[in-house]
Automatic annotation (TrEMBL), chains A, B, C, D, E, F:
The active site is at P2. It comes from Photorhabdus australis subsp. thailandensis. This is Tautomerase. Residues 2-60 form the 4-oxalocrotonate tautomerase-like domain. Its EC number is 5.3.2.-. One of its GO terms (molecular function) is isomerase activity. It comes from the Bacteria. It holds the Pfam family Tautomerase.
Length: 73, 73, 73, 73, 73, 73
């Protein structure tokens, strides 16, 4: 009965991509630990880029800076 | 000083229902553990049905399937 | 399919009390929102009193101070 | 590589204030524990006032009551 | 820069299995959303079976009951 | 009434350092948003290095590798 919480920035993940995250995370728990998928929960939280920081900067700024570079975050 | 986080799918819970969840969860901590309600926090997160999976399927799909059945989730 | 996370300080909650929290939180979701108990998860986290702060002080200190007063937290 | 999750009520925090929270929380981990800011995450969740309870009441009610008093929450 | 929190019951997951969860969850975010693994965090929380409830019962009880049946949770 | 959850690896943070995290996080919310410290919660979770992954590797491995380098994580 695992619970998986995936937090990503809100930057256009599609319904199809979110389905793949749910399927993939559920299958991972089945494959590695033999968990029952019927009682495996996955919750995806999409967070505004202003509300997510890394290295002391928010992702809005990081994305703007990355336009001039090849940095992938 | 307990902290309670209730996560539900965003499917039309009313302000009144959410008040009842806050009151009920707070009272539960008072009744069972004698906690002080004044320092008991309750946070309700409402999650899009596309973003919640169970059994490897998202709730949007489960709700559509349930229309043809009596399954309650 | 709600998910409830109850966080309390680790101060001797018994297995019986934790059962009551699980039962009570599950029933609350049934009563207020008509949720299916079979797919309702409750997770209790017990947090060391050194690791929980309120008002800028940790609970270890608050408990020591409260011994000389009637404050309930 | 710390992870900091700050939850506040959604009551008009500006992008600038949220930047300050991200910078401040990141710096705190550097100052106290010598953590590497480059791998420090901060996520801010803004929660509707109907969805946050304290003392068994939601913040929407507490804010209305506070208009007639000097209580700060 | 995703953040994945996997919560499982504390029932003997090995260091090797936890490595596989970390690798698998990281790869899932790369495959589905093209995220940078270098800034992908995975945290596994192992929860005591007394502290996890489903269907209003804790997992300690469910495991005891399951010994006499083929139920997988 | 903010809630701050700080997650760090369990690598010997002292009670004094954790006090500083609680004080600092509480003060940050006061300084930036004018929040009331009396209703500000801080919870610190210390996570085993086997249970925290970054870049697809757990911190136990990263620490071992870092002994031969100057990498700070």
């Amino acid at each position: 009965m695992p619970f998986v919480n995936i937090r990503i920035t809100r930057e256009g993940a599609t319904a199809e991509q979110k389905k793949q995250l749910i399927e993939g995370a559920t299958q991972l728990l089945v494959d590695v630990l033999g968990k029952n998928p019927a009682t495996t929960f996955v919750i995806i939280d999409e967070v505004e880029t202003d509300n997510w920081g890394i290295g002391g900067q928010n992702v809005t700024e990081l994305r703007a800076a990355a336009k001039n570079s090849s940095t992938l975050v």
